[in-house]
Amino acid sequence: MSRRLLVAVFQHEDDILGVTRAAREAGLKIVDVYAPFAVHGMDRAMGLRPSRLSRVCLIAGATGAILKLWFEIWTAAIDWPVNVGGKPWNSLPAFVPITFEVMVLFAGLATVAAFFLVSRLNPFRRVALAAPGVTNDRFALVVEQTDAGFNAPWVRGLMERFHAVHVEERVEEAKR
Amino acid sequence: MADTLPVLAQPLIAGDKSLARVTEDVCRPMERRPGALWWLAFLAAASLLAVGVAASGYQIATGIGTWGLNNTVGWAFDITNFVFWIGIGHAGTLISAILFLLRQRWRTSVNRSAEAMTLFAVICAGIFPVIHMGRPWLAYWIFPYPNFRGPLWINFRSPLAWDAFAISTYFIISLTFWYIGLIPDLATARDRWKPGLRRKLFEIFSLGWDGSYRTWHRYEMVYLLLAGLATPLVVSVHTIVSWDFATSVIPGWHATIFPPYFVAGAIFSGMAMVLTLVIVARKVMNLEDYITVRHIETMSKLVIATSGMVALAYATEFFTAQYSGNHYEQFAFLNRALGPFAWAYWIMTACNVAVPQLLWFRKIRANVAVVFLISILVNVGMWFERFVIIVTSLHRDYLPSNWANYRPTNIEIATLAGSFGLFFTLFLLFCRFLPVIAIGEVKGVLSYGRSHAPGSDRKVAA
Q1: Which chain B residues are within 8 Å of A116, Cβ to Cβ?
Q2: How close B391 comes to chain A (CA, Å)?
Q3: pLDDT tens digit string along B211-244?
Q4: Whole-angstrom Cα distance, residue B293 to residue B445?
Q5: What pLDDT, on the 0 to 100 scale, is given for residue A175?
Q6: Which structural domain, as residue segments, surrounds residue B34?
Q7: Which residues of chain A make contact with B191, given a CB cutoff of 8 A?
Q8: Judged by CB atoms within 8 Å, which residues 126-145 of B form the interface with A?
């Protein structure tokens, strides 16, 4: 299903923050905001929930630590025990450093991989920018024109009140 | 505005930049052909690198008997260089991760180059233990893998095995962190580049970044998590490096103070190296508005703070050795200060304890040339610190009949020079091909200490 979008372009951080907040309060459906940097406070303006990537980090870190600890105990005490300076087979304190390193490695790489996956970032992705300059000095707000109760002139007025430099309607074809 | 709110912090970036101007200022040096100065520096660095490659090739082919080591001094130049370079790397992580968690927003101007420095320093560090193995083509034996020797696993109780894991994890996580930070800037570069090979590369490596705030939102979480992971990681790395020494029973090494002492020293030397690099980079690449005197002053203060920690560690270990009642410990430290390597000890003390005290004076901190000189002296001092710890502890240990001297051979010196060549070659290539300033992050702090972003005077903007 294709959807009709309204794209408004802004020049200033304050404007994009203000218009996003106002659009959300007016009940418009915000598709996305495009910005050249992480605008402080935009997550609240858009009403985004905190990212759940921290859970990936915790789970992957715990998995890495447990696997590595098991591996160290298994190799050093079960599979091929070697007497090193009379230390016990299972020298737990000596296993801590590598367990820690592997935990960090797993947690870090898994978090990044999950981020790429959910954000669909990959080397083959080619994008058409929402508006020219959103990776340089422009901000863009994209709202969906839902059928019922979408008052186009009023929305345009709202955008202009926040100094939109350009407002454009666009039809987006259905994805895949 | 400025009259009513005099307590507000000064802006971090000088010269009232607009967003487009930031992109322009950072990207322009990448688009221009490099100047004569860059070529001069690059040729010098590449020549040093060539010397290092030749020396490494020779010592790998001949064997590490080409070094000045003997039965008594079994570790010297090589490990000194390894610890020195790893230490350099630590300031990059301090700036990128620890200062991020502490919300020190001035870091945005220097974090990209500091992180690059970390990566290159870790690469330089990694070369030394690999050469030291004698058979570098078997370097992978340090990692546990199912092999045809049993499988006989590695000894997980050994600090050298810990080291291998710590350094590789550190490199991988630093690289990931650096790359994550680069993605939005690569997209910025991509969108202003003329079609061609480099544009293609930017397209591939920017992963289709389109500035979507939903992505930015997750990106910030990833950045925070990586910073949270990198912070204990960087502390663990130099802690483990210090355990290479502290878990042995050599007088002068067997000390519980080693981990904090090494971590402080690492950050001290790394911060000095960051200063050396950014002072040159801001000049050569016209980035004085981004890396301002204020940034240099702030980093100088970090140098004084860590110098104080290092000085405290020197005093503590000296006092503890004398107070311990252990003759070997007492001798090891007196021998450091008064023995055949006293010159190295006093270079270390002068450069690491005395010279940084000059930075207490604002006039000196604001004088970029003097800070540059001090930063180089600190690095000389920190190299000698590792040399002193390693060589003086070994060359006269328990049995006087075992005592020996140590003198590096030309091959060892050439390898050290080569590592500097590698470091600067990589850094210069980085300056040439990638945005040296985190464009996306700097744009976020333009309005620091002001109620409006610069240029928010609408009449001017329209």
Answers
A1: 207
A2: 25
A3: 899 999 999 999 999 999 999 999 999 999 999 9
A4: 17
A5: 56
A6: 19-450
A7: 129, 133, 135-136
A8: 144
